[in-house]
Design a protein that fits this description.
- The complex is a heterodimer.
- In chain A, 76% of the residues lie in helices and 2% in strands.
- Chain A has one domain: ABC transporter involved in vitamin B12 uptake, BtuC, CATH 1.10.3470.
- Chain A contains 14 helices and four strands.
- In chain A, the strands form two sheets. A two-stranded antiparallel ribbon of chain A has the order 1-4. In chain A, strands 2-3 form a two-stranded antiparallel sheet.
- The longest helix of chain A is centred in the first third of the chain and has 26 residues.
- In chain A, α2 runs parallel beside α13, α3 runs antiparallel to α11 and α3 packs across α13.
- Chain A is mainly α.
- Chain B is an alpha/beta fold.
- Chain B folds into two domains: 233 residues, 3-Layer(aba) Sandwich (Rossmann fold), CATH 3.40.50; 236 residues, 3-Layer(aba) Sandwich (Rossmann fold), CATH 3.40.50.300.
- In chain B, 33% of the residues lie in helices and 25% in strands.
- In chain B, strands 6-9-10-3-11-12 form a six-stranded mixed sheet, sandwiched between helices. A six-stranded mixed sheet of chain B has the order 18-19-20-15-21-22, with helices on both faces. Chain B has a four-stranded antiparallel sheet with strand order 2-1-4-5, with helices on one face.
- In chain B, a hairpin with a 2-residue loop joins β1 and β2.
- Classes of the chains: A mainly alpha, B alpha/beta.
- Chains A and B meet through α9 and α10 of A and α10 and α11 of B.
C-alpha cells in the first residue's frame, strides 16, 4: 500500500515535471523580484490566488473531461454569467432564500450542459459549433433577464460561497478541494472515467466494447454545465451581484489551463493532476503580473506567450519520449 | 560490374536511438523484374524503403541507379533518381478529382490559372494507357480502395519513375481486384520498370514476383529466385528457425450446437444469413470483400441499427440489442479493423486489455490495481504478447502484438463463442502461427470460434467447416474434408 502511494507520487512528479518546474520557477522569481518580494509569499496573497482561481479550477475539471472526450466546451463563460444572475435574481426579485438561489443557479448550469450534451449526441454537429451557439444563447438570456444591469445582492449568506471563510480558509478554497477530489474520483476510480478515455481515444472501438457513447458524452457535458453553474455562484457571491458580463473569456482560461496541464487536444489522453498545475500556473501568472504592476493590456500578451511556450516545451518532451 | 542493375543499394546502415535498424544491407533490383521484400514486422523492410525514398538518410552506404551513384538525401532527390513509393496508407485527397490528385503540386498552366482541361486530358491518357477504366473527373472519395490504389500507382508512374515500390498493396482489396492490380504491375514491368513488392502473403509471391529478398533483424538474410524456393524455406529464413507447425489444428469431434442464426439481415449489406456453430468448432466464413460477412457478425453482436432474423444460443432464442447483451450470452467479437474499431491507440496495454472487464476490479469506492495487473498479465502470458511493460502505449507495439492484446481483451470476458474478424490481418508470420496455435487450444478447451478471413490458406487449414457468403447471403457450407480453393471461389463468385 505504502509503495503504491510512493509510486503514485513519483509517477505524478515524473508525468508533470516540466510544468511543476515552470510553476516553481515562476514562484521563485516572484519571491526574489524586488517589487513582489514582500507581497507575493504572504498567507493573504496565497489565499488570494487560490480564491481567484477556484472558479477556473471548477471549469477546468469539466473541460479536462470534455477535451479527453475529444470535444470542446465554449459556453462555460456565459453560463457563469447566467447562473450568477439567476441566483441573485431569485434572492432579490423573488425573495427566495439564498440557498434556493444557489441551487437555481446550479440547475441553470446543468440545463445548459444537458442541452449541449443532448444536441451533440443526437446530431452530428461538432461540439465547437454546438457550444458556440449555446454560449451566445446563454449570454443573451443573461442580458435579457437583467436588462444589462447587475443585480446587487449584499446579504451575508449570499456572500458566503465567494467571499466568506470557513475558519481561516476562504470558502472557494474549500470548494476547490472538494470538487477536485470528486473530479479525480470520477476520472480515475470509476468505470465512467475509463469510458471517457475510451470514447475519446476511439469512439468506434468504444461501441464495440459495449460502451454507451452517447450516455458518456451526455454525463460529461452535464457535469461541465454544473461546474460552470457553481463557478457562476462563487463569482457572483464574490462580486456581491449577478452580472451579465461576468465570466467573459473564462472558457479560454479553462482551456489554457487544461492544455498547459498536458492534456492533448486530440482526445483520448490527459490527466487532472496536470490540469491542477495548469490552473496554478495561469493563476500565479495573473497574480504576479498584477503585483509587478504590469499594465493589464500587456498582461494578455505575456499570458499568450507563456501558454505557447508551456505547450511547446511539453510537446518537445513528449516527442523525445516517443509518445 | 558484371551485370548492370537498375538499382543497387550497397552496405546500407541506419540506426535509431538504441536500435540498429539496418545493418550492412545489400539489395539489387533488375529492370523489368518484380522483386519481393519479405520479413516480419520490424525486420527493417520499411526502413530500407524509407532510405530509398529519401525519408530517412542512411549513415553509411551507397545507392546506384543504372550504374550511376546517386545521393538521395530527401524526397525530391529520390523522385529525381526515378524512385516512386506507393505507401500502405493511401494519401490521396478524397474531395478532389482523380486528375487533380495525380497532378497535385505540379498542375499544368500558370500558378494562378490552372489549365484544368489539359490536366484532365493528360490524366485520362495516363489512366487509359494502363486500361484502368477510371474517369479522371471522378472524385476520389467515390472510388473503391482498389481503384484508389490504381490512381496512386498511376500518379507514381507519371513522375517517369523507373523504380516503383508497392508497400503491402493488397492488404485491403479483394481477390478480383488483386488480379487487376497484378495485370497493371505486369504491364509496367514490360516497359522496363523495376518493382519492389512488400507483402506478407506467400501466395502472391508465387504469382507475381521473380525474386525475393528476405530481411530479418535489420539484415538481408538471403535473396532467392521465387520459382526455385519454397514457402517453408522462406518462412524459415524470416523467423530464423524452422516453423514446424505453421497451422496448428487438431480436428476433434465437435459437440452440440451452441449458436444458431436464421435469416440474419441488417437491411443493408447483410441480407439473409443462416448458419450454425457447434461446441469446439472453428467455422470459417469466406467470401469476397463486400460479401456482408462482417456486417452479419456485427448484426448478431448487436451493432446493427435494424436487425431482423433469429439468434439461438444453446437452443434458447435470445434478444441481442447491444454488445452488452451479446457478452451476457457469452458472445465476443474481435473486430476487423484493429485501428478503427479496436485499439485505444494512445492508451496503455493495460487499459486496452481490461476495458471489457472493468467491473471485475473497479468497485464502488476503489480500484483494485493488483487485480487489474493480474488480469492484464494473464492475457499477456496466454497470448505470449511481447511488450516492455503493461504501461507501454499500445500504438508503439507491432501489429502482431496489438492483435494479441485485442484477442486477449475479448478472451477476458470468458466467451463461449468467439467471433474473429480477419484475426491475422497485418500480422507477421511468427505471430500468425502463434495465433493459430492459440485458436486450436481454445477450441480444445470447449470454446467455439467463428473466423472471418480473406486468406484462403488460413480458411482451408483452420476450419472444421466453411460457410461461403456472397451479396449478403450464405451460399453454402463446405466441410473440412472437401474444402478446396476452387469450391470456395465457385460459391463466392457472384
Amino acid at each position: 500500500m505504502l509503495s503504491r502511494i510512493k509510486n503514485g507520487v513519483l509517477g505524478y512528479l515524473k508525468d508533470n515535471i516540466g510544468i511543476i518546474i515552470a510553476l516553481f520557477a515562476m514562484c521563485i522569481f516572484l519571491v526574489i523580484f524586488p517589487t513582489t518580494r514582500t507581497t507575493f509569499l504572504t498567507t493573504k496573497n496565497v489565499f488570494n490566488i487560490l480564491r481567484q482561481n477556484a472558479s477556473n479550477l471548477f471549469l477546468a475539471t469539466g473541460m479536462t473531461m470534455v477535451i479527453i472526450l475529444g470535444g470542446i466546451e465554449l459556453s462555460v463563460g456565459s453560463v457563469i454569467a447566467l447562473s450568477g444572475c439567476v441566483a441573485a435574481g431569485c434572492v432579490v426579485f423573488l425573495g427566495l432564500p439564498e440557498i434556493v438561489g444557489f441551487l437555481a443557479g446550479i440547475l441553470v448550469g446543468a440545463l445548459v450542459g444537458m442541452f449541449n450534451g443532448f444536441v451533440i449526441c443526437k446530431t452530428e454537429i461538432p461540439p465547437f459549433i454546438v457550444t458556440l451557439a449555446s454560449m451566445n444563447i446563454a449570454k443573451g438570456i443573461a442580458l435579457v433577464y437583467t436588462t444589462g444591469a447587475p443585480i446587487r445582492c449584499m446579504t451575508d449568506a449570499f456572500k458566503f460561497p465567494g467571499a466568506g471563510y470557513v475558519g481561516p480558509v476562504p470558502t472557494p478554497v474549500i470548494l476547490m478541494i472538494i470538487i477536485f477530489v470528486i473530479a479525480c474520483f470520477i476520472v480515475n476510480r470509476t468505470q465512467l472515467g475509463r469510458h471517457i478515455y475510451a470514447v475519446g481515444g476511439n469512439a468506434q472501438a468504444a461501441k464495440f466494447s459495449g460502451i454507451n457513447v452517447s450516455k458518456v458524452k451526455f454525463i460529461v457535458y452535464t457535469y461541465t454545465g454544473v461546474m460552470a453553474g457553481i463557478a457562476g455562484i462563487v463569482i457572483a457571491s464574490r462580486l456581491y451581484s449577478g452580472q451579465p458580463t461576468a465570466g467573459d473569456g473564462a472558457e479560454m482560461d479553462a482551456i489554457a489551463s487544461v492544455v498547459v496541464g498536458g492534456t492533448s487536444m486530440s482526445g483520448g489522453s490527459g490527466r487532472l493532476g496536470g490540469t491542477l498545475i495548469g490552473v496554478l500556473i495561469i493563476g500565479v501568472l495573473n497574480n504576479g503580473l498584477n503585483l509587478m504592476g504590469v499594465d493589464s493590456n500587456w498582461q494578455y500578451i505575456v499570458k499568450g506567450l507563456v501558454i505557447l511556450l508551456a505547450v511547446y516545451v511539453d510537446f518537445i518532451r513528449n516527442k523525445k519520449a516517443g509518445r | 560490374m558484371s551485370e548492370q542493375y537498375l538499382l543497387e543499394m550497397k552496405n546500407i546502415n541506419k540506426s535509431f536511438p538504441g536500435v540498429k535498424a539496418l545493418q550492412n544491407v545489400d539489395f539489387q533490383l533488375k529492370a523489368g523484374e518484380v522483386h519481393a521484400l519479405l520479413g516480419e514486422n520490424g525486420a527493417g523492410k520499411s526502413t530500407l524503403i524509407k532510405v530509398l525514398g529519401g525519408i530517412y538518410i542512411a549513415e553509411e552506404g551507397e545507392i546506384y541507379v543504372e550504374g550511376q551513384k546517386v545521393n538521395i538525401d530527401g524526397v525530391v532527390p529520390a523522385r529525381k533518381a526515378g524512385v516512386s513509393i506507393v505507401h500502405q496508407e493511401l494519401v490521396l485527397v478524397p474531395y478532389m478529382t482523380v486528375a487533380e490528385n495525380i497532378f497535385l503540386g505540379r498542375e499544368p498552366g500558370k500558378k494562378l490559372n490552372i489549365n484544368r482541361k489539359k490536366m484532365t486530358e493528360d490524366a485520362q491518357k495516363l489512366l487509359d494507357a494502363y486500361e484502368m477504366g477510371i474517369d479522371a473527373d471522378t472524385l476520389v472519395e467515390k472510388l473503391t480502395i482498389a481503384q484508389r490504389q490504381m490512381v496512386e500507382i498511376v500518379k507514381a508512374i507519371s513522375f517517369n519513375s523507373k523504380i516503383l515500390v508497392l508497400d503491402e498493396p493488397t492488404s485491403s482489396i479483394s481477390d478480383k481486384e488483386v488480379h487487376f492490380l497484378f495485370e497493371t504491375v505486369r504491364n509496367l514491368t514490360k516497359q522496363g520498370v523495376g518493382v519492389i513488392y512488400i507483402s506478407h502473403k506467400m501466395s502472391e509471391l508465387q504469382e507475381i514476383c521473380d525474386r525475393v529478398t528476405v530481411m530479418r533483424d535489420g539484415q538481408a538474410v538471403g535473396t532467392k529466385v521465387v520459382k526455385e524456393t519454397t514457402t517453408d524455406e522462406l518462412i524459415a529464413l524470416m523467423v530464423g528457425r524452422e516453423l514446424t507447425n505453421y497451422y496448428t489444428r487438431d480436428f476433434l469431434e465437435p459437440g452440440e450446437t451452441i449458436l444458431k442464426c436464421e435469416h440474419i439481415s441488417d437491411g443493408k449489406m447483410a441480407k439473409d444469413a443462416s448458419f450454425e456453430l457447434k461446441k469446439g468448432e472453428i467455422v470459417g466464413f469466406a467470401g469476397l470483400v463486400g460479401a456482408g460477412r462482417s456486417e452479419t457478425m456485427k448484426a448478431i453482436f448487436g451493432l446493427a441499427a435494424h436487425r431482423t432474423g433469429d439468434v439461438y444460443v444453446k437452443g434458447q432464442k435470445v434478444t441481442i440489442k447491444s454488445p452488452v447483451d451479446a457478452l451476457k450470452y457469452g458472445i465476443a467479437l474481435v473486430p476487423e479493423s484493429r485501428k478503427d474499431e479496436g485499439l485505444y491507440g494512445v492508451q496503455s496495454v493495460q487499459f486496452n486489455s481490461t476495458i471489457e472487464v472493468l467491473n471485475e476490479f473497479i468497485g464502488k469506492l476503489r480500484v483494485d490495481h493488483a487485480k487489474e495487473e493480474k488480469i492484464t498479465q494473464k492475457y499477456i502470458d496466454m497470448m505470449s504478447t511481447k511488450t516492455p511493460s503493461q504501461q507501454q502505449i499500445i500504438r508503439n507495439l507491432s501489429g502482431g502484438n496489438q492483435q494479441k492484446v485485442m484477442i486477449g481483451r475479448w478472451l477476458a470476458t470468458n466467451p463461449e463463442i468467439l467471433i474473429l474478424d480477419e484475426p491475422t490481418r497485418g500480422v507477421d508470420v511468427g505471430a500468425k502461427a502463434e495465433i493459430y496455435s492459440i485458436m486450436n487450444e481454445l477450441v480444445k478447451q470447449g470454446m467455439s470460434i467463428i473466423m472471418i478471413s480473406s486468406e484462403m490458406p488460413e480458411i482451408i487449414n483452420m476450419s472444421d467447416r466453411v460457410y461461403v457468403m456472397a451479396e449478403g447471403v450464405v451460399k453454402g457450407c463446405i466441410s473440412h474434408e472437401e474444402i478446396t480453393q476452387e469450391k470456395i471461389m465457385q460459391l463466392a463468385a457472384i
